[in-house]
């Protein structure tokens, strides 16, 4: 349920404690308006912030005053009403996570994380110390919502309840209470992603059943106690399963100077600028080749993205350009236009360099597929670099004569077709 804005009175910062069995003996000392309750007999009805003098006086009368004075210290204030905040116990709904602990630890074992130490250490330890999860944000039931607002509620989705207001308990001159934008415990919503995004169970039951648990999720290390956790708690409570099969946990992307990226400091280049300048593929390769995919921090450097362009895309592109130039040359020189020789014929090429690069290309496909299936993104770029080095510095360089037609038309077509095939296979998306 939503958070309601208390217009023009101290907003009480609510620290949810227990409900039901656990909190029955708890003494609630302060009421909704910040006044001591009947339980605090001597000061009941007194506003907590005005009670200091009387309390000091009472302690003094009993002869127990050790020292009286003033200490200056920071204090939390409501950013909206600028009034002081206090901590106060309120009834709250909890999810009994503690009862699920064994099952959570068991489900964690069924998932695959990159890097694995985040799963084995950080997340495991967090689950071992799991606490009941307070999800209420003030309004505790449909019943009390209806009672306070005088409106019958049939559906808790925002568009059905956002317009509902609650009259101020202090009288009509104080206006009404409205829901503010924050809803519920927002972690509950993020943890509900696998169901909520397709409106399960109200729709898409089959789609859901086919795709749950999800193949993989990816987020930052800081989500161990956030999203990764709430996904796991809710799926365990609802289905006894983890919500994902694989998880990539990434580190933080920091600014060039090692500090947090900050909009006000502008200590990082605009992502769109970098993409416009070097291309999205270069940014993508730069990131998957960085410590970020091993949950370690990365200092984002524009020069690093340029390095990818220089080391990966330019050589790759130059090999392609060389192919196109020489394919066109065939026509210019009066031969039939270039049509790649079919695979079966190519595989039979007796040229040892053709055989070698064909084999290296197959190995590349095999390697990338295997590593991507293992979610080890960081192994892919170093291998690709080595492959491109082999292609451009060995294959193309050693075959210039053949590719330029100096060893006869037939041999030229075989060499061009081999290069064509290598470039095609190395840049296309391979079906599983
Ligand atoms: C590059 O060529 C060397 C020499 O043949 C070979 O050992 C290596 O596996 C090749 N690497 C790739 C990634 O193709």
TrEMBL record:
User: Start and end of every Methionyl/Valyl/Leucyl/Isoleucyl-tRNA synthetase anticodon-binding domain?
Assistant: 354-425
Please give the InterPro entries that the UniProt record associates with this protein.
aa-tRNA-synth_Ia, Anticodon_Ile_ABEc, Ile-tRNA-ligase, Ile-tRNA-ligase_type2, M/V/L/I-tRNA-synth_anticd-bd, Rossmann-like_a/b/a_fold, tRNAsynth_Ia_anticodon-bd
Q: Which GO terms describe its molecular function?
A: ATP binding; isoleucine-tRNA ligase activity; tRNA binding
Pfam families membership: Anticodon_1 (PF08264), tRNA-synt_1 (PF00133)
Q: Which ranges carry the Aminoacyl-tRNA synthetase class Ia domain?
A: 53-296
Q: Which UniProt keywords apply?
A: Aminoacyl-tRNA synthetase, ATP-binding, Ligase, Nucleotide-binding, Protein biosynthesis, Signal
Q: Which GO terms describe its biological process?
A: isoleucyl-tRNA aminoacylation
List the catalytic activities from the record: tRNA(Ile) + L-isoleucine + ATP = L-isoleucyl-tRNA(Ile) + AMP + diphosphate
Q: List the signal peptide residues.
A: 1-23
Know the name of this protein? Isoleucyl-tRNA synthetase
Give the taxonomic lineage as stored in the record: Eukaryota, Viridiplantae, Streptophyta, Embryophyta, Tracheophyta
């Amino acid at each position: 349920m939503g958070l309601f804005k208390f217009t023009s009175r101290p907003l009480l910062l609510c620290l949810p404690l227990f409900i039901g069995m656990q909190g029955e003996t708890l003494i609630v000392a302060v009421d909704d308006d910040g006044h001591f309750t009947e339980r605090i007999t001597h000061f009941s009805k007194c506003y907590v912030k005005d009670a200091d003098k009387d309390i000091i006086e009472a302690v003094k009368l009993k002869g127990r005053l050790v020292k009286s004075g003033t200490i200056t210290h920071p204090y939390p204030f409501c950013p909206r009403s600028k009034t002081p905040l206090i901590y106060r116990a309120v009834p709250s709904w909890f999810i009994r996570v503690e009862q699920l602990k064994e099952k959570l630890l068991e489900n964690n074992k069924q998932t695959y994380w990159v890097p694995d130490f985040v799963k084995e250490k950080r997340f495991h330890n967090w689950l071992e110390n799991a606490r009941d999860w307070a999800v209420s944000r003030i309004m505790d039931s449909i019943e009390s919502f209806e009672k306070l607002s005088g409106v019958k509620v049939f559906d808790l989705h925002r568009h059905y309840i956002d317009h509902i207001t609650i009259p101020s308990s202090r009288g009509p001159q104080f206006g009404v209470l409205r829901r503010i934008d924050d809803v519920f415990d927002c972690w509950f919503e993020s943890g509900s992603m696998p169901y909520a995004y397709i409106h399960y169970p109200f729709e898409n039951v089959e789609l859901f059943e086919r795709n749950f648990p999800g193949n993989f999720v990816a987020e930052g290390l800081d989500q161990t106690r956030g999203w990764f956790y709430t996904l796991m708690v809710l799926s365990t409570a609802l289905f006894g399963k983890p919500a994902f099969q694989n998880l990539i946990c990434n580190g933080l992307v920091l600014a060039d100077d090692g500090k947090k990226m900050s909009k006000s400091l502008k200590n990082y280049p605009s992502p769109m600028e970098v993409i416009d300048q070097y291309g999205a593929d270069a940014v993508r390769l730069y990131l998957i080749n960085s410590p970020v995919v091993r949950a370690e921090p990365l200092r984002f450097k524009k020069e690093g993205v340029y390095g990818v362009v220089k080391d990966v895309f330019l050589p790759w592109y130059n090999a392609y350009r060389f192919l196109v130039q020489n394919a066109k040359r065939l026509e210019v020189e009066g031969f039939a236009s270039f049509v790649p020789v079919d695979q079966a014929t190519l595989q039979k090429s007796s040229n040892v360099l053709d055989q070698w690069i064909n084999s290296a290309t197959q190995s590349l496909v095999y390697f990338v597929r295997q590593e991507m299936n293992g979610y080890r993104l960081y192994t892919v770029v170093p291998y690709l670099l080595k492959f491109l080095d082999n292609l451009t510095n060995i294959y193309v360089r050693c075959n210039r004569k053949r590719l330029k037609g100096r060893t006869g038309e037939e041999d030229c077509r075989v060499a061009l077709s081999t290069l064509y095939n290598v470039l095609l296979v190395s840049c296309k998306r391979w079906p599983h």
